[in-house]
Design a protein that fits this description.
single chain, Jelly Rolls, Immunoglobulin-like, 3 domains, 6-stranded mixed β-sheet, 5-stranded mixed β-sheet, 1 helix
Length: 335
């Protein structure tokens, strides 16, 4: 069938739908195949496609897509959804999908099917054979002409790529494991894979365009890193949870009754190198200890201090994350 005859046949039912419906799709040949990115749906319509006939029996009006497998390879799912084929006399209402391997020349004889032709008039999934890693493949979405139809289906549809061989995030690209840091501490983020990196938000980061910035947020923050792979943009997230490593109480009653006679700092025993310093309202130091093995009893050099509010400065000296910011606040003696 000549190209002119094919165009004429395609135009017959489309004229009834209005002149704006039959613009030729940009991706109706191999050279202009659109890139499919894993888990990123595209919408299409094969109305007016005039490229070569489909590779599956009884198919025409072909749209071309391409994708590159991840570094592990494996089966790939091509999901067709939102399928909408108008009812027109003499025209079918089914689409067909096939995935091909090739040498990149776009010559018809260079392609080999890597799965079975799959077709339906409702949403469906075509699953390939196990595909090689880091390899380009082509997806053909075609209109079907069978059951007596003289014209292949012309349909709106959505197409999505998924499966072990296609998914990038977690395989070839990752923002790294979630981390927990104390207030004032920092953690090194570790994005893997990708070719460029953009982190958002950039608050608390040493750099927002490298794979391994230092993160020092003031509050729990979810960072998103975006990269480019095989012509696609992918994003992944990592949570940096900011916690208070210690919980100092704000009052104690050193009156000798055996209850609440010393100042409790919950969690301090996990930091044997900590430095605890306490000052009075005039800035005079009244207590200092490294390790805080003996909790403060409200004295200064053995002398009982009066009821008042005092001010603490605690440095944990943690090994993780370098030198953390000091914990500061007030403590009140009640007698």
């Amino acid at each position: 069938m000549s190209t002119l005859l094919r165009i004429a046949l395609l135009m017959l039912p489309l004229l009834a739908c209005g002149p704006a419906a039959w613009a030729q799709p940009v991706n109706d040949d191999c050279a202009s195949a659109l890139t499919l990115c894993a888990q990123q749906p595209l919408t299409g319509n094969n109305t007016g496609a005039v490229g070569i006939p489909g590779f599956c029996p009884g198919t025409n009006s072909v749209l071309w897509y391409t994708f590159t497998t991840n570094t592990q390879g494996g089966a790939v799912n091509v999901v067709i959804n939102g399928l909408d084929c108008p009812v027109v006399a003499g025209m079918d209402n089914e689409l067909s999908v096939i995935v091909l391997s090739g040498d990149g020349s776009c010559q018809p004889g260079s392609f080999t099917a890597v799965g079975n032709c799959t077709q339906d008039s409702v949403d469906f999934t075509m699953t390939t054979d196990s595909l090689s890693p880091n390899t380009q493949y082509w997806v053909l979405v075609s209109g079907v002409a069978d059951n007596g139809a003289t014209i292949s289906a012309q349909c709106d549809f959505g197409v999505t790529l998924s499966g072990p061989g296609a998914d990038i995030v977690g395989v070839d690209f990752s923002a790294g494991e979630d981390v927990e840091i104390g207030e004032g501490e920092f953690a090194e983020l570790e994005a893997t894979g990708g070719t460029t990196w953009t982190w958002t938000p950039n608050a608390g980061l040493s750099d927002d365009a490298i794979p391994d910035p230092l993160a020092n947020p003031t509050e729990t923050t979810t960072y998103t890193v975006t990269t480019q792979l095989n012509g696609c943009t992918y994003s992944d997230e990592v949570l940096v949870e900011v916690i208070r490593r210690i919980q100092p109480t704000n009052t104690f009653t050193p009156n000798g009754d055996g209850y609440n006679d010393t100042w409790t700092i919950y969690g301090i025993r996990d930091y044997p190198a900590c430095e605890v310093t306490i000052y009075d309202r005039w800035g005079q130091r009244v207590f200092r200890d490294v390790g805080y093995a003996e909790p403060w009893d409200g004295t200064n050099g053995g002398a009982r201090l009066p009821m008042a509010t005092y001010y603490y400065h605690i440095v944990l000296n943690t090994r993780e994350g370098g030198s953390a910011a000091a914990y500061t606040g007030s403590i009140t003696i009640v007698r």
